[in-house]
Amino acid sequence: MGAGHDHGHSLADAGQRHRGRLWAAVALLAGFLLVEAVVAILSGSLALLSDAGHMFTDVLGIGMALAAMTAAAKARGGDRHTFGLYRLEVLAALANALLLTGVAVYVLIEAVRRLGEPHEVATGPMLVVAIGGLLVNLAAFALLRSGAKESINVRGAYLEVLGDLFSSVGVIVAALIISATGWWYADPLVAVAVAVLIVPRTWKLGMAALRILVQAAPAHLDVTAVRARLAEVPGVCDVHDLHVWTLTSGMDVASAHLRLEPAAEATLVLSTAREALHHDFHIDHATLQLEPQTPTPCGPSSW
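== Cobalt-zinc-cadmium efflux system protein ==
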């Protein structure tokens, strides 16, 4: 085994570091969400309502991130969960992507309906709340930015807040246009723009989560290169049954069978192979099985 145990602890420690920021972000967004939803209904603004729906998924997404981090921190292995509960983070990210897709579809359907029958909108409250939403999203964005590089779930929440920033700007623009020209179509058109903005980000997040769940090789790793590097380790004559996958954000895992040359020293081969995986591919959790030394000529295995 490699240094997977220590790496698992480092991931849980990273979750602990980001938990306070997540709580602060969700408190900000949840508090303002209530205000935005009420004003959206009273003002009749679909753009503001879509922004409120987007903010709701932000709150729900961050809540799921917090739940996943808490569960992972409480279950670092054991007889039933030998890898801990790190996959909960990935499942939460996938659920978050599905929720965002649902919001986008609803807004698009409602916007098409309103394009046929434009609704009057109370632009004063709409503008004030949209500006408030922009400020709240800026604060949440700053809180989540650092954690987005370490966690797929924090990245999902971060991307949602980033999208909310743009949607808040769109609502502000729509309110100004309607106020200045009385062109009511600006409201559903901005709502459509917000919905379209959601889709590419949710697709990317959902695909990243699915890639982890189906245990595909990490996109940034060349499995052929990993195999070749292990084969270069002195004393190794064949590498087979190589598997590389991602357990959760920032934790790539590998397993492989290494067939040894007759004169190879097992302890040295194992330590060198571990170091190669760590140094060249940042894989710190590896299970390496050394095939028994044999007097027969060294060559590829039949399986």
